[in-house]
Design goal:
Blueprint: H1 2-9, E1 11-18, E2 27-33, E3 39-43, E4 59-62, H2 65-69, E5 74-78, H3 84-87, H4 90-97, E6 101-103, H5 105-115, E7 126-128, E8 134-137, E9 140-146, E10 155-161, E11 164-168, H6 186-195, E12 197-203, H7 216-229, E13 234-237, H8 243-255, E14 259-263, H9 265-276, E15 286-288, E16 300-304, H10 314-319, E17 333-336, H11 345-357, E18 361-363, H12 378-388, E19 390-396, H13 400-412, E20 417-418, E21 425-430, E22 435-439, E23 444-448, E24 451-454, H14 460-469, E25 471-478, E26 489-493, H15 505-518, H16 528-547, E27 552-559
Parallel strand pairs: 3-5, 5-6, 6-7, 11-12, 12-19, 13-16, 13-17, 14-15, 14-16, 17-18, 19-20, 25-27
Antiparallel strand pairs: 1-2, 1-21, 2-3, 4-23, 8-9, 9-10, 10-11, 21-22, 23-24, 25-26
The structure holds zinc ion (2 copies).
Length: 560
């Protein structure tokens, strides 16, 4: 009976601390053991990018507070592939966790290049597992299964425990000609299904799209034709992480008898890692952008960062004619070999409009097949479900609507159980019927310049407010009797300089402050905080009356 009791206490569990309810910031946990003494396997540790509501924030990271407490019980961090939303947070968060990392050769190479920019590169234990390889990590037997995506060596992870197994897909699609790595390992996936799969934790990104995605090879063909037929210079912008696309552009450039000019540090890192691991020929020739001006227009293909309209990246600077080495003219072609991520539409169209205004031809995925997603549409999901036949499906890697579309689809596919969960939900996969049993703390961290702060109660909310209403600061110096020693000084930032009647806003602020001060009896002016509050209210009311804005207002009271 004793053994039966201990078996009941031991659970096989799953949770996401990022990635379920958003596309980005992926961080998944598989646990085994009783609640008080559970061993954890982390899968992926990614970032997401800020939008307008997080002004000035560099990147958003998952909150790993829970894992910091559990640090001694974490067996390792396994990476599915080298995309920022899956491994980009390691540079900021590894020092807090100090866990060993497991990755395929290409992912490990990319990680090492990234870690060079930190001070702790040599401290990180990186264990390389080949695609298709197996390994014991803590209580789990894991196996990497080859998938297709837009980067070399994307892997699904089969996690075996004494209580059952789970297949964690990572990012994937079906592509028989993915140009990087082998195609999805269909025979192995079928085997896994035939042997019995308890749980499938699966990519939901394109679960709302019907059909089957075109192959990366189709995109390569279109790019090659566009480059071959272009009369003058061609610039191609894509994600630096889209190694398949970079290879396609490189080959098309060579076939067209042109020279590849590479702009952007991120592109260099990828090309070097791809050469290091054999995904690009060692003798593949590319030149830095400093050589751009020495090449004839009909011989150039420039590969540039900035497909999302990022203002500091190469493409935006080319559009603004402020790039130090690359300039385009009327008749040149720019290919956006990428999808615009929701939230970036305005930045991207700003760049595209600037190019169009100068008679540079802009080609996007609306015009030609110059981009394809690396994620499964419904036709591909259907095939995977028919191969692995899971008893349970948990949709991941999606926003709410993607997750729901995936969940409904899995039900239509006849999966016996579908669990709809969100970040923080702890699911007991086994023993017994899978269900949510607990909630783990989760959240977001902001990297803001050189500090990392918690989203909760962060200064970023104030910064966002400042961007809408501006700020007013006022300084008053009072004698010990409570009279003004000098005219108050005001600073107004981010507001109109004058009212509609032409009164300087600074004067308005100072008059409001003096008026408010005069209405306070002198003996009561000893209370500096009370004075500051009264002046602040008066200033905000006056500015609101004249400008229709309630600025962030600070009042500094000095008493002599
Ligand atoms: Zn990916
Ligand atoms: Zn992803």
């Amino acid at each position: 009976m004793a053994s039966r009791k201990s078996r009941q206490e031991t659970d096989f569990v799953f949770a996401a601390l990022g990635g379920i309810g958003e596309i980005g910031m992926n961080l998944y946990l598989y646990g085994f053991g009783p609640e008080e003494d559970r061993d954890w396997l982390m899968i992926d540790l990614g970032i997401t990018f800020p939008t307008e509501v997080e002004p000035g924030v560099d990147v958003i990271l998952p909150d790993v507070g829970f894992l910091e407490e559990e640090r001694r019980n974490i067996a390792g961090l396994l990476l599915t592939h080298a995309h920022e939303d899956h491994y980009g947070a390691i540079v900021d968060l590894w020092p807090r966790l100090q866990v060993p990392i497991y990755a395929t050769p290409f992912t490990a190479e990319m990680l090492k290049a990234k870690l060079k920019e930190t001070g702790f590169a040599d401290d990180v234990p990186i264990h390389v597992i080949p695609v298709g390889g197996t390994r014991k990590i803590g209580p789990f037997e894991i196996e990497l299964v080859a998938m297709s995506h837009s980067i070399p060596e994307p892997s699904a992870v089969l996690i075996r425990s004494p209580l059952g197994n789970a297949l964690h897909t990572g990012d994937w699609k079906l592509d028989e000609t993915p140009l990087t790595s082998a195609a999805t390992d269909e025979p192995r996936l079928r085997n896994i299904g035939d042997a019995g799969l308890d749980a499938l934790i699966c990519d939901s990104t394109n679960a709302m799209r019907e059909g089957i995605s075109p192959s990366e090879a189709d995109v390569a063909q279109h790019l090659a034709r566009l480059i071959r037929e272009a009369p003058r210079r061609v610039a191609v912008t894509t994600f630096a992480s889209n190694v398949a696309r970079i290879i396609s552009v490189a080959k098309a450039t060579r076939d067209a008898g042109r020279v590849l000019v590479v702009a952007g540090r991120a592109m260099y890192r990828v090309i070097e890692a791809a050469q290091e691991t054999g995904y690009l020929d060692k003798d593949f020739r590319f030149v830095p952008d400093t050589e751009f001006s020495s090449l004839p227009p009909s011989k150039i293909v420039a590969l540039c960062t900035g497909s999302q309209g990022e203002p500091r990246a190469a493409m935006a600077r080319i559009a603004q004619e402020s790039h130090p080495n690359i300039s385009l003219d009327a008749g040149d072609h720019v290919i956006f070999s990428s999808r615009t991520i929701p939230g970036n539409e305005r930045a991207v169209s700003r760049v595209q409009n600037s190019l169009s205004d100068r008679a540079i031809e802009v080609i996007t995925d609306q015009d030609h097949l110059v981009h394809v997603s690396g994620h499964p549409r419904r036709g591909e999901l259907k095939q995977l479900y028919s191969w692995v036949k899971p008893k349970l499906s948990i949709p991941m890697h999606g926003e709410g609507r993607h997750l729901e579309a995936h969940a409904e689809f899995a039900e239509e596919m006849g999966v016996p159980q579908v669990l709809r969960i969100r970040n923080g939900d702890l699911v007991r996969l086994a023993p017994g019927e899978p269900r949510i049993i607990d909630e783990l703390p989760c959240g977001r961290l902001y990297r803001d310049g050189s500090v990392v702060v918690s989203e909760e109660g962060s200064h970023v909310r104030d910064r966002r407010k400042l961007s809408f209403v501006g700020t007013v600061a006022l300084s008053v110096v009072l004698s010990d009797k409570g009279t003004l020693v000098a005219e108050p000084e005001a600073a107004v930032i981010g507001l109109a300089e004058e009212t509609a009647e032409g009164e300087p806003v600074e004067d308005l602020v100072i008059d409001a402050a003096i008026g408010a001060l005069e209405s306070i009896p002198r003996p009561r002016r000893k209370d500096a905080k009370m004075v500051a509050d009264a002046l602040r209210r008066a200033i905000r009311a006056a500015v609101n009356q004249k400008l229709g804005k309630k600025p962030v207002c600070s009042v500094l009271v000095t008493r002599l």
